Amino acid sequence: MYYFIEPMTEDDIAEVQEIEAQSFPSTWSATTYKRELRNTATNRYLVVRMSSTPPPPHPENTPNLRRHGILNHIMSAFFPSTHETTQQYPIIGYGGVWLTVDDAHITTIAVDPRYRGSGVGELLLNGLIDAAYDLEAKMLTLEVRVSNTVAQRLYVKYGFLPGGTRRRYYTDNGEDALIMWTERIDTPEYQALLSELRRQLYTRLQQQVTHTNPKIMPAPEFHE
Ligand SMILES: CC(C)(COP(=O)(O)OP(=O)(O)OC[C@H]1O[C@@H](n2cnc3c(N)ncnc32)[C@H](O)[C@@H]1OP(=O)(O)O)[C@@H](O)C(=O)NCCC(=O)NCCS
User: Fold this and answer.
1) 8 Å CB contact between 4 and 76
2) Which of 15, 60, 124, 205 has its CA 20 to 30 Å from the CA of residue 73?
3) What's the pTM?
4) Ligand 1: lining residues by beta carbon, under 6 Å
């Protein structure tokens, strides 16, 4: 199976809301999504699509998310062309990030429950990290339910550390939010961590592809 990331568009909202409804106790309205998507100066929203055949190749100059030189080696393998419509490929995950001053705040991330545990959440997080670089953020931050240890493990893997709590942050059950932060993401240390994690993720995703078709997806070159 192939997974690839694209910027979310207004046409994707209904599909995204289906995953959201299966992932969170409350959901955003279509109007909220539209407002978020239009605010392109500070926001980036992404979807992951799935395909059983290789998605169309991406052109060199799009989208902006891949522009950041250091980190494009993995993600580029998964970006399709924006010249061809990709609506026929189902959305299986989505996520978003906002820039507030120097910090990229991950606002949401979720994977269709049927496709969890296959690296899709990790792929999405990498897309959001690339978006944060694109927005020239210095650090990443997010809130996560204290009980959500699955998501916390993903974040810890990518260098997020607990930085405090917000008491009774979630209105549905009064649960506290754990605030998590990375160190600066523009350091060689963070970029080395990311590079290594991407190597591992690429191998994991490639195994899923080669399982269905051994001839495709040549390994990309990894370099800082
Ligand atoms: C959190 C979420 C996005 C992870 O997506 P996913 O595709 O299932 O995760 P991946 O397969 O990419 O796994 C990446 C990492 O997440 C963690 N993880 C995933 N599933 C896990 C599980 N069942 N138990 C513990 N850790 C788990 C691990 O650290 C894993 O890395 P590893 O395989 O090296 O151990 C997904 O579980 C989800 O949509 N949850 C509901 C929505 C949500 O809670 N979003 C976060 C809001 S803050």
Assistant:
1) no
2) 15
3) 0.89
4) 23, 109-111, 116-122, 144, 148, 150-151, 153-154, 157
